[in-house]
DNA sequence: CAGGATCCTATACGATACTG
DNA sequence: CAGTATCGTATAGGATCCTG
């Protein structure tokens, strides 16, 4: 411990800022489920996602999708049907989250086993 | 899309529950920075962590460490020195988060570049 | 169908002060 | 040093109703 220089610590703080940047985008109750849904189904309408995710309200879905759009993770496409339908899909950048989601899924499974016990 | 069976959807909902389980443990402002700190330094005292993480209060650190302990991610050890010092370290189970944290860190970096522009 | 507007509650979090 | 207690605020999120 005594050998740790200021640079060493600064390097770590930089890393922490990066993880927090990531978590700022992904935290909350619904972001990951939404991304997960779009990952799984590739292309999805508003009401489909509403159905994919148990317990989410339209208000929340709308709000979260907007934030994901702002963060360039999701692309919104309005189709001029009657009545209008709207498609959501992950951008290329959004797709780069796939590995993380998969890892989190796997970890979630083993964690539950660990906590609840089997 | 039309070929998706009920089973297919149920499988996906299971996966989503798993990611949410993971996020329940990791969400919030401080959990990941704390784990990151313990990952980096291996063993750390309360006041050290307080120093590692910019902006965290002792109240929050105390609270978050307790939750991490309950989730078996962190082990607390009291050393009978005068005055007492307390060591925190990741459990084996906590260490399994390393990959995820590394991935999130890397993703955070590219995401910031993407959003802020370079 | 795809949302927006409104209202309300819970909890996350912050600041400060105190203790063994 | 390693916390706990107390108080206050802000934000996340839920419920319900409305609209082009």
From TrEMBL, chains A, B:
Keywords: DNA-binding, Transcription, Transcription regulation
Domain of life: Bacteria
UniProt domain HTH hxlR-type: residue ranges: 3-116
InterPro entries xref list: HTH_HxlR (IPR002577), WH-like_DNA-bd_sf (IPR036388), WH_DNA-bd_sf (IPR036390)
The keyword Protease is assigned to this record: no
GO molecular function ontology, one term from the record: DNA binding
Protein name: Transcriptional regulator, HxlR family
Gene source species: Sinomicrobium oceani
């Amino acid at each position: 411990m005594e050998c740790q220089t200021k640079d060493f610590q600064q390097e770590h703080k930089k890393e922490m800022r990066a993880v927090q940047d990531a978590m700022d985008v992904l935290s909350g109750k619904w972001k990951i489920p939404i991304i997960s849904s779009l990952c799984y189904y590739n292309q999805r309408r508003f009401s489909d996602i509403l159905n994919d995710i148990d317990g989410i309200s339209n208000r929340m879905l709308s709000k979260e999708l907007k934030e994901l759009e702002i963060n360039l993770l999701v692309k919104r496409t309005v189709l001029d049907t009657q009545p209008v339908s709207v498609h959501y899909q992950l951008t290329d950048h959004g797709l780069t989250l796939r590995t993380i989601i998969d890892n989190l899924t796997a970890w979630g499974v083993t964690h539950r086993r660990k906590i609840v016990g089997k």
